[in-house]
Design goal:
This protein is α/β, with parallel strands linked by helices.
């Protein structure tokens, strides 16, 4: 399993990742910022498997799938995450199939690997969505969202109840990944699984590390910023985390050790 640590872009280009796999976010913001083009040049020349995120990070208000492909071409990405709509299976199917239609029309089926993210309001919808996407030839990877089942499980919770419910949702997500991996397309190796983010604790990954290709997370990075043990649970729910605050030199050193030694 490849564990991808999410860092501010300006720092992610200067740290060694395990298996040289990167997930890149907020590149439209970077492109329009100070030294944006120079930073994109560094990303383009960086050796490694680059996954380009989309949605609110890449499309933004009024954004188009064409913008994602322009950025993917600019940085020479290897894989693109197709659009999805949080918690909505039908809207996600529409968004993903629209993107695939664009890919067909422009003849870009072989230009990139493509990840489709399953969404839904309950287990059955998530599974139906994942199986549908796994049946598309152009889809190589199924992404399981970080907030899998969270809305349904946490509905009506308050205070400390939320903590327990988020943990329950996180454990259900690991069970979902295990169940999905038993489907023929995944057992044969034709399709792979990526977990988008860590919901509760990096220790979740011990349950799925043999059945998923990769997982991205900013949890360990944020824990280092907050001065708490990097492998501890994400204890402060609802807090706004940002990719703009960079790690100091000591925190970067600690992260490099975690990457080298494994979690």
């Amino acid at each position: 399993m490849n564990l991808i640590h999410i860092l501010p872009v300006t720092q992610s280009i200067n740290i060694e990742q395990p298996y040289e796999m990167y997930l890149l976010q907020e590149l439209q913001k970077v492109a329009h910022g100070e030294n944006g083009e120079a930073i994109l040049d560094i990303i383009k020349d960086k050796i490694g498997y680059k996954i380009l995120d989309n949605g609110c990070y890449e499309l933004g208000a009024g954004g188009q799938i064409e913008d994602v492909f322009m950025m993917a071409d600019r940085i020479e990405a290897a894989e693109i995450i197709l659009p999805d709509v949080m918690g909505d299976m039908h809207a996600t199917i529409d968004a993903t199939t629209d993107a695939l239609e664009y890919i067909y029309k422009t003849g870009r089926q072989s230009d990139y690997y493509y990840m489709a993210v399953c969404q839904g309001s309950d287990w059955d919808e998530y599974m139906a969505c994942a199986k549908m996407f796994a049946g598309f030839d152009e889809v190589d990877v199924i992404g399981i969202p970080k907030k899998f089942m969270r809305e349904a499980i946490c509905r009506g919770d308050s205070g400390s109840q939320v903590v327990g419910s988020v943990r329950t949702a996180a454990l259900m997500r690991t069970e979902f990944a295990q169940a999905l991996s038993e489907e023929p397309e995944f057992k044969s190796g034709r399709k792979q699984i990526h977990m988008l983010g860590v919901s509760w604790s990096p220790l979740e990954l011990q349950k799925v590390e043999k059945v998923i290709r990769s997982c991205d997370t900013n949890l360990i990075v944020e824990n280092l910023k907050r001065g708490v043990p990097p492998i501890s649970s994400w204890a402060t729910f609802g807090e706004k985390y940002t990719l703009e605050k960079e790690l100091n030199e000591l925190q970067l050193y600690d992260l490099q050790k975690i990457i080298e030694e494994g979690f």
